[in-house]
Amino acid sequence: MMQRTLRTGMALLCLIPGMGQSCGYDALYPNPFEQSWPGTVNIAMATAAAVSSDRLASLPTLTGEAGFTRSQVWLQSLKSRFQKAGIQGGISILLIDSGLWSRVRGKESLLLQLHTPGPHPNDRIMLLSEAAINAMLDGSLTIEQGLQLGVVELQRDDNQQFQQDLYKALSSQT
Questions:
Q1: 35, 99, 100, 150: which has the fewest Cβ within 10 Å?
Q2: Which string of DSSP letters, residue by residue, matches 39-108?
C-alpha cells in the first residue's frame, strides 16, 4: 500500500510542468524530477520515502512569497551557524523542492546570496530537500543521518571536510 502511494505521488509530481523561472517560489513549484543538477532526483525520491516511513517530518507546501520567506529563514540560520562555527564560505546550496540555489561566501564575515544561477565553479555543493534542512536545523536530523537517508548530498567534498564542517555547524546552537 505504501509503495503504491509513493509511486502515485511521484507520478503526479512528473505531471507538473517546469516553469523556467529562477526558482519555484517565482511561479509554480518545479518538478524535482526535472531539475537539471545531478542528484536531485535521488534526493526527491529519498525524501518521499523518508517522509512516508516517518523518518522525516512532512512540511506543508508553501509557494510564492511565503515559501521563499521560509527558505530564507532556514538559509540565514544555516549561514549564522557557519559563521558561529568559524566555517568559511564557498558553499552553494540547492533546495531541490523549489530549485532555489543560494550561496554562502566570505571568510571571516559570511554573506548569503539568494537566487544564484547555480553553483560557483569552486564551491562545495550541498543538495537537500526542505524537509531535510528543517530537520537538521531543529536538531531532529544529523548530517550523517541525512546522508545515510539520501535526503542530503554533498558534492566536491573529496576529503569529507565539508561534512565535518556541517557537523560542527549543526551541533552548535543558534
A1: 150
A2: THHHHHHHHHHHHHTTSS-------HHHHHHHHHHHHHHHHHHHHHHT----EEEEETTTTEEEEEE-SS
**Beta-bridge partners for 4:** none
User: Would you say the C-alpha torsion 11, 99, 133, 58 has a positive or negative sign?
Assistant: negative
CA distances from 5 to 9, 49, 94, 145, 165 (A): 6, 10, 26, 24, 37
Three cell numbers written together for 11: 507520478
pLDDT tens per residue, range 8-34: 444 333 333 333 334 555 454 455 445
Burial-class residue 85 by CB neighbours within 10 Å (0-12, 13-18, 19+).
middle
Close Cβ partners of 2 (under 8 Å, ≥ 6 residues apart): 52, 53
SS3 110: coil
The structure's pTM equals 0.81
Environment class of residue 111 by beta-carbon count within 10 Å: exposed (0-12), middle (13-18) or buried (19+)? exposed
